[in-house]
Amino acid sequence: MTTTTRTPASTGAVGSAHTRLEGRDKVTGAARYAGEIPFADLAHGWLVLSTVARGRIRSVEDAPVLAMPGVLTVVHHGNAPRVDTDYVGMLGRPNPVIGLFQHDRVPFSGWPVALVVAETPEQAREAAEALAVRYDEEPHDVGFSAGRTDAYTPESNPMVQAETTKGDVAALLKESAVVVDEEYTTPEEHHHPMEPHAATARWDGGRLDVVDANQGSTWVAGELASLFSLDPASVRVRSEHVGGAFGSKGVGPHQVAAVMATTVLDRPVRVVLTRRQMFSLVGFRSPTAQRIRLGADADGRLLAFDHQAQSLTSTVHEFIESSAVLGRVMYDADAHHTVHRLVRLDVPTPSWMRAPGEAPGSFALESALDELAEKCGVDPITLRVRNEPDAGPVSGLPFSSRNLLACFEEGARRFGWTDRDPRPGVRREGRWLLGTGTAAATYPSGVGPSTAAVTAETDGTFTVRINAADIGTGARTAMALVAADTLKVAPDRVRVRIADSDLGPAMIAGGSMGTRSWAWAVTLAADELVKRLALGGAIPPGGITTRSNTAEAVGALEKKERHSFGAQFAEVAVDVTTGEVRVRRLLGIFAAGTIVNPLTARSQFIGGMTWGLSMALHEEAIRDGATGGHVGADLAGYHFAAHADVPHIEADWVDDPVPGDPVGMKGIGEIGVVGVAAAIANAVWHATGERHRDLPIRPDRVLGAADAARRRAERGEPRA
Ligand code: MOS
Question: From the CA of 356, how far away is ligand 1's center (Å)?
Fold first, then answer.
């Protein structure tokens, strides 16, 4: 680490820029990822996925494959070890896709039907591709669209409240001087970390030892223990380096397959997913169809607020893409309604993907706010100032801190917003129409229980043990800074051990809760150690260790609205003859509590914003109604932003003290993406005068909108 050298007496490690502790190992290749750690006698498993979208497996014709070179076994529903999926894990009931090979039913295209294990990955792959699986096919339905009559309102689950209602929306819409009532859609999107999912499992002296790439080893170990009915203490999961995750790296079929195969063969087995397999096995963001109704007085003050968000789930498990949660935090109105609806289809179960809910929800809601501003003739930032709530619009709880307007103020200043001509479609630069747009961002600042240990070693260094997951965020480095700050030592005297379930239970790297959760535990243990060391005396061999467990404190935390906030700004250029949209500038200003490491924090924000750009303009997974599978299920077919699409992006933050908060950090992993697609869509409207309510804003859609506008103008009709 390039340490900003600090004297032992100073605090201040938190808030100063540090490169990643493991950065050198990563760029030199010394860091090993789950799929490349060597094991003696390693066998390789290759998953075989269903080619039909619904039906039953009639036969798995494994005999010819078992005779192929190097093949050791074929595991399928006819011979697989039994697992127990009737449990409630750390994040709820398990997705049945991890109840691998337990029956002959196929609920979607890409469902795992067999694992072929061989001496080499090449042999396993060749045999897997040769394996004949026969099906009795049934008709399937993969067609998601707005207004499906079979959409239902799900039960709330521990993570998502399905519906909230306050007042009479219909009545107050009638009383409103200005009404916006529009539908917005976002397509199916996929999170594909650079590192594909991989796991190696083996039995080691009676313990199950799994080397994995995940967002929480406590979580994955707990799921594997439940599935295989093992004593939790006899399962160890390690995940030293993770090449990105974004919600996709929990427990999946690959770990379960590896455990089954090592149990059958009694030798280490590795299962690595291919890019193509990831499209059906690691979750994705559901498409959404969202209707937003806003009723306001002539000045834009909201009287009625309604956000109805439809998404899809599978036939085997329920997942709610919580797009409608934003309004419960952001905007109050006398009548206020938010609801999620689901359609069950013959597709894989969607899952958490960076800013689940908030990412697609903010496209719809922050576009609708812009439409309201336009209709009221009010500046979009002024509109938000006028609708800034004093307390949670639905909960009535106070905010732990809410510095949204400070973000807009700083952002407007830096972006040059105040000089903006609000009229759409009037700025031209050669073939380009230019426009600017803005949107608000928010994401919850949650916290989960964690344990930590800090040791004062005899050589004057310190060791922190916390089962954090560093999924590329810089979590390991952040924990070193947090510990150094409390211990009042230079960060280079702190060594951090993470990503090993034997370190004790800790929160996952998810929901933007990792740093906040782990920092709390590390601070408590380090505090305790400082007190112990202050008593004096020599440090015994083995050091002095103090431990913490935040479970009780987390449970006792005062109920408040706790969220990060942000303001996103975009400038675009639109070529109306080709339909090309170029983003020229993005600026995001965030209020996210204490920023631990400005260097990696800025990267997190910029990464999220880049993702938002990609969502606005490029990303869209296409399902083929005939086969029920994807068209172009690879990184060539799934279009996303490349270097040439990404302009100068600036991210920064405002001071955001959180009075009385035990940690002060809020979490930054997801908020960067929130609002970006709306800011870009709003900028495209400002450039062209055309609203884009369907993502992505593809060239054909830009051209179609321009054509429609020309025809309307010829008929003397107003803009859409
Ligand atoms: Mo995040 S989508 O909770 O990893």
Answer: 7
Q: What letters, b where the CB count within 10 A reaches 16 and e where it falls short, cover 223-234? A: bbbbbbeeeeee
Phi/psi at 563 (5° precision): -150, 155
Long-range contacts of the stretch 166-171 (C-beta < 8 A, 24+)? 166/334, 166/335, 166/336, 166/337, 166/394, 167/304, 167/333, 167/334, 167/335, 167/336, 168/335, 169/293, 169/295, 169/304, 169/305, 169/306, 169/335, 169/336, 169/337, 171/335
Return the number of other C-beta atoms located less than 10 Å from residue 88's C-beta.
10
What's the pTM value of the predicted model, to 2 decimals? Answer: 0.97
User: Is the CB of 202 inside a 6 Å radius of any atom of ligand 1?
Assistant: no
| Cis peptide preceding 398, ω within 30 of 0 | no
The CA 365 to ligand 1 mean position distance, Å, reads: 21
Predicted confidence at residue 11, as pLDDT, reads 65
Extract the residue ranges of the chain whose pLDDT is less than 50. 1-10
- Give Cα 68 to chain centroid, integer Å: 41
Query: In 84-243, which residue ranges form alpha helices assigned H by DSSP?
Result: 121-130, 169-175, 217-227
pLDDT at 147: 85
* Ligand 1 center–CA 523 separation, angstroms: 24
Domains of the chain, first to last: 23-31+448-555 (3.30.365.10), 398-446+559-720 (3.30.365.10)
Q: With the C-alpha atoms ordered 312, 318, 324, 330, is the resulting torsion angle positive or negative?
A: negative
d(CA 338, CA 333): 12
Residue showing tokens 């951090």 = 496
**Cβ neighbours around 174 below 10 Å, total:** 12
User: What's CA 600's distance to the chain center, in Å?
Assistant: 17
What are the counts of helices (DSSP H) followed by strands (DSSP E) for the chain? Answer: 17, 26
**CA–CA separation, 34 vs 193, rounded Å?**
14
Cβ atoms of 79 and 141 closer than 8 Å: no
Relative to the CA of 248, which ligand 1 atom is closest? 4
437 within ligand 1 shell (Cβ under 6 A): no
Q: Which residues contact 540 (CB under 8 A, 6 or more apart)?
A: 458
**Phi, psi for residue 487 in degrees, rounded to 5:** -75, -15
At residue 643, the pLDDT reads 95
Distances (CA, A) of 427 to 206, 433, 566: 71, 6, 27
321: helix, coil or strand?
coil
Which structure tokens are listed for 554?
């987390």
Strands 269-272, 163-166: parallel, antiparallel or unpaired by DSSP? unpaired
Q: Which residue has the tokens 């200005």?
A: 178
